[in-house]
Amino acid sequence: MKKVGLGIAAVVALVLLGGFVWNQLGGAADTARVGDCARISGALDNPTYQALDCGSEEANVKIAKVLRWNESKCPSGGMDYSTYTGDSTLCLMPNFVQGSCYGQDEETGIAKVDCTTKNSVRVARVLTGSTNGAACGESRAAIFPEPAVTFCLQRGDQQKQ
């Protein structure tokens, strides 16, 4: 489970990094809508935002919520979202795909990798509409309350259940 914890830490780092990128790319975020996906790259040197279809292999973040003028925080009760505040505030979450493995990437923070990659994390289940971490069983739960999604995470080299 220690390696799954590292994977969770990588997810959190990506989400926090996303907030930095959004602040650097204010104009690109103005047209973003809930459910839209993007690829964030060049995170440390020269961050770039590229809107992509959520089915794209390179889409690593998804817009979870656009806050209204009278809302000041992203939803709480699960994993932290990153934020961008300009004309509106955007809350970001990872764009994980069930059965895929992810690892740390210097360019994007986190990226799809082969499951045999050292310290990779496999998304065992994606529970859309659920914040029930117990449904993950022995897998590690990464819960986002809005939209309600629970990612069940395992070490990448573990057998599929």
Strand order of the largest sheet: 2-1-3-5-4
Poorly predicted runs are 12-25
- Element string (H = helix, E = strand): HHEEEEEEEEEE
Count of helix runs: 2
Got a strand count? 10
List keywords for this structure.
alpha+beta; 5-stranded antiparallel sheet; 2 helices; 37% strand; globular; 161 residues
Summarize, please.
By secondary structure, the chain is an alpha+beta fold. Helix content is 17%, strand content 37%.
Structure commentary:
Helix content is 17%, strand content 37%. The protein has 161 residues and is of the alpha+beta class. The protein starts with a helix and ends in a 6-residue tail after the last strand. It has 2 helices and 10 strands; from the N terminus they run ααββββββββββ. The radius of gyration is 15 Å and the shape is globular. The model is unreliable at 12-25 (pLDDT under 50). It has a 5-stranded antiparallel sheet with strand order 2-1-3-5-4. Strands 7-6-8-10-9 form a 5-stranded antiparallel sheet.
Question: How does the SSE layout of this entry go?
Answer:
Blueprint lengths: L1 H23 L1 H4 L7 E5 L6 E5 L8 E7 L14 E4 L3 E6 L6 E5 L3 E5 L7 E8 L11 E6 L2 E8 L6
Antiparallel strand pairs: 1-2, 1-3, 3-5, 4-5, 6-7, 6-8, 8-10, 9-10
